[in-house]
Amino acid sequence: MKASTSLPYIALAIGVIAVSTSAILVKLATAPSAVIAFYRLLFSTLFILPYFLWKSMPELKTFTNKEWLNSIIAGFFLALHFILWFESLNYTSVASSVVLVTLQPIFSFIGTYFFFHEKISLHAFFSAIMAAIGSIIISWGDFQISGMALLGDFLALAACIMITAYLLFGQHVRKKHSLTAYTFIVYGISTVTLFFYCVLLQYPLVRYSYNDWVCFILLAIIPTLLGHSLFNWSLKWISTNVISVTILFEPIGAIILAYIFLGESVITSQIIGGMIIISGILLFVFEKKFKRILKEEPSNINS
To answer: What confidence category does residue 142 fall into, taking pLDDT thresholds of 50, 70 and 90?
Structure first.
């Protein structure tokens, strides 16, 4: 039982490392943002399809109308998230964009409170505030760059709201259904949404460079299948709030990768902000675990 309860948290750690590569791969691609998003979700859906047909297709009959609706809405918000976030990377740095996207706890705590009446402890709120402060410190230097950088920051913030909505609408559906069935539906809806968006804006869907196609495929495999799918898998056991706080590790990984692959320098504010983020997350996770130990083994603690 103890091993199984720790498994979702291990999955979260792997997921955060995987999604940290997303901004780098988007920056390395030269295709329009909506096209990158479309192929990321298309390839992800195609990779899932064989296993879905083999194992999970009959499960679709068990979805209620409300669960279908929530899944469709979640997929739509996921598509909007990718459009807004990928576009933000055209205007601002990886540090600013990723940091603002991962300010999810603020929106998640508000959303779960108003829509799902989920209780928010003072400790959880304080941990999220610490992480948010760290994120703001990291991005402070980039806020000063230009009006275009500020536009990128605004797009990233809007993308943050969209990904929070995606997690909130999918939370209860994921708890009742398998990862494959839920993921296939959500990614499929996102793919269709992005396809019509590309057609509407008349973006070409072919004749891209070899480098772009490599980025499309890697985006599907690493941050999507290993990243978002692991987050979705964890939703069955872990609250949206916990996942949102843990995802704040992403800026640290993304900043390091941006330095290595894109030559984006790491400044003092990013180091300080990163340390505050890690402190907030560790406070949130370990305090929660310590409370469980106190509850389960009071005699050992008191002796």
So the answer is: low
Q: What is the pLDDT of residues 250-282, one digit of tens each?
A: 887 888 889 899 988 777 777 787 788 777 777
Query: Across residues 75-94, what is the average pLDDT?
Result: 93
Region of 48 please: left (phi>0), alpha (psi -120 to 50) or beta.
alpha
pTM over 0.90: no
Q: Which of 81, 67, 75 is nearest to 172 (CA)?
A: 67
Q: Where are the alpha helices (DSSP H) in the chain?
A: 2-19, 22-28, 33-51, 65-88, 94-101, 104-116, 122-143, 147-176, 179-200, 210-219, 229-234, 240-246, 250-261, 268-296, 298-302
Cα separations in angstroms, 215 against 75, 106, 241: 22, 31, 30
Name the one residue in this structure whose structure tokens are 């950088």. 149
With beta carbons less than 8 A apart as the criterion, state whether 301 and 294 touch. Answer: yes
